[in-house]
Structure formats: C-alpha cells, structure tokens
Description:
The chain is mostly beta strands and 136 residues long. Helix content is 12%, strand content 45%.
Amino acid sequence: MRAATAVLTLAAFGLVACGQDEFANNPRPATAIELSGVIHEEKVTVSPRKLGAGPVTITVSNQTDDPHTITLVGDRTKAEIGPINPLDTGTIQKTLEPGIYEIKAGSAEAVTREIRPAELEIGEQRKSSADQVELP
C-alpha cells in the first residue's frame, strides 16, 4: 500500500512539473510597424526611414509604367517580392535587426538608368508589446 501511494505521489509531482515551461512568462515581441513605400521612375521612397528593431510590414506601391521586383537587403537579411505590376502593391513582412537596409526596385528589362534605392535605418530593439491591449 505504501509503495502504491509513493508511486502515485511521484507521478502527480511529475505531471505538475511537466507543464511549468509551457506557459513561461516570456516577453512578447514589439508590435509590427507599418511602412509605406513608393517606386518612382527615379527612386524608391519609404516612410518612416528610421525606426527601432523588430517586426515590420512594408507595403510598396509601383507608380511606374513597368513591373518591378522589390528586394530588401541588409547584412544578414534578404527578402524579395514581385514583380509588382504598375499601379499595384506588394508587401514584405520581416523582423529586422539593427543596421542599415536598402529597398531596391529591379526590372526584368534593361532600363536606361537605375532606380535609386531607399535606405532604411534600424536602431535599437523596440520595447515589448506585453503592456498593449487589444492585440491579436
């Protein structure tokens, strides 16, 4: 009887210990920041150009007469979407680390001059979104 009680007690402690790490109170990531970009004939623009590290959603509108591929390039990051047709949009979702990034517009056809890329400056990590309500 004692042996059975000891085994059941140990099993109960084992089950309680299994779930401890499952609901650890880890900080939530920062809220994603929405950036807007436009492909012009001469250059790509993005706003805001300076922000803290964390998740971003970059929506780029192609305001040229040709389709373009958008490429986000950084030290250890590369993301590409497209081609984006004229007057259409494309979106890149990425978590960015501190550093300098370029957002380039490319074309499958030869162009007379290159479209100047936009520069994005990512600073220190943004704070956790744990204290923000009504987030998914």
